[in-house]
Amino acid sequence: MILVDTSVWIDYFNGVENRQTENLDFILSERTVLVGDIILTEILQGFDRDNEFRLAKQALDSLECVHLGGKSLAMKAASNFRFLRSKGITIRKTVDMLIGSWCIEYEVDLLHNDKDFDRIATQLPLQIYTF
User: Fold this and answer.
1) Which residue in 1, 16, 30, 73 could disulfide with 11, CB within 3.0 to 4.6 Å?
2) How confident is the model at residue 131, as a pLDDT?
3) Assign residue 97 a region: left if phi > 0, alpha if psi is -120 to 50, beta otherwise?
């Protein structure tokens, strides 16, 4: 199973060709792709045109959606943030801490295109998907 971050989905839906979108093309047919509830919101709110919104919603609806929040994970993400900050690493977005902490907690690989996740992985056991 692989959780795919918003950063990859945005590139994918915009037709950007890079290593991450090529990996997404591959894993969509070979592996179980997960989308997080928060990630789903981030992706869909970015569409300006109703038709594109409907098409993306339909495509993403076929993926297994996981809950990325809750009290326990919120506390874990805060602890992880504080640990990273003690090492001189500050993660810019709370949602990235939640996503990274969820992946660590459930031992799920993360496909992303966001340097903050690479920074998390330098100090915590975040598994970054690479092909």
Assistant:
1) 16
2) 78
3) alpha
CA angle (101 as vertex; 91, 79 as ends), nearest 5: 70
- What is the residue-wise DSSP string for the chain? -EEE-HHHHHHHHTT--SHHHHHHHHHHHHS-EEEEHHHHHHHHHT--SHHHHHHHHHHHHTSEEE---SHHHHHHHHHHHHHHHHTT---S-HHHHHHHHHHHHHT-EEE---HHHHHHHHHS---B---
Contact 97, 68 (CB under 8 A): no
* Domain over 2-123 is classified CATH 3.40.50.1010: yes
Question: Is-contact 59 44, C-beta < 8 A?
Answer: no
| 97-125: average pLDDT | 98
* Domain ranges within the chain, ordered by starting residue: 2-123
Give the span between the Cα atoms of 97 and 78, in whole angstroms: 8
Q: What is the pLDDT of residues 22-53, one digit of tens each?
A: 999 999 999 999 999 999 999 999 999 999 99
